[in-house]
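User: quick one - fold this with nicotinamide-adenine-dinucleotide bound?
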Amino acid sequence: MKTVLITGAGSGIGQALALGFAQDGYRVMVTDMNLAGAQDTVAKIQQQGGEALAQVLDVTDEAQMAAAFAAMVQTWGRCDCVISNAGIQIIKTVDQLSLKDWQLMMRIHLDGAFLATREALKIMYPQNFGRIIYIGSIHSKLASAGKAPYVTAKHGLLGLCKTVAKEGAAHNVGSNVICPGFVRTPLVDKQIPEQAKTFGISEEEVVKKIMLGETVDKEFTTLEEICDTALFLANYPNLGLTGQSLILSHGWEME
Ligand code: NAD
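Assistant: Sure. Structure tokens for the protein plus nicotinamide-adenine-dinucleotide:
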């Protein structure tokens, strides 16, 4: 049975990934800084007959990251896939942004991804197999006003992914970034009123113009689409797609 560790899996996209991977037969190490959220995800997996463990993990904490992977290896003996998903959003224009907020975003999105990668590779290299998936964003490819630290960090994941693809190849370790457009999760629900305030427009206009304005079908990216894409990448039989980022944005951005 394959195993996966997912960060930020107590809510939104991470929870959906955990449920989807469990349904596909993976044993899932469900981690989140919010233990109650992780436990909720595990309960849902167990209800559907899957196998999962909850582990408290703040991705900025080096010791907690090492402990989560150690627990995984101790329990299941291997780590086939890691999904670096934990993330937050802080919306402020650059002239209004504090160094503290900037650094927090870098710590969660970039330090977190680095630590998850490094700990995973320690297990994946000796077992000669691994798939590393970063949850990037449409903002790995383009910018939006008010999101400088998010855009910077999500672009940074592309560099990390490409480097890991080069270094990991000799050990049969592949890496990818998934770049979703807007998905209705608590993270986005919180942004709608915030963006309405920042830009002085209605919440309806935020959804219609900012979030879905550039999509070809005016649809949100769905949790199912992200999960299907992640499973496709995790189960990809060789390194044919390693280093690539896939934009899942209903045509908002194409390359
Ligand atoms: P969410 O707020 O629903 O879930 C995020 C989870 O991350 C929460 O459970 C939270 O407790 C956890 N978390 C936050 N800080 C953490 C930390 N330091 N350590 C460990 N866990 C932490 O958000 P979501 O929409 O599911 O976002 C998940 C990922 O997807 C993020 O990286 C986000 O940038 C990315 N993303 C989201 C969207 C979207 O539209 N929702 C689009 C593109 C990319």
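One thing worth noting: The pocket of nicotinamide-adenine-dinucleotide is lined by residues 7-8, 10-14, 32-34, 37, 57-60, 85-88, 108, 135, 137, 180, 182-183, 185-188 (CB under 6 Å).
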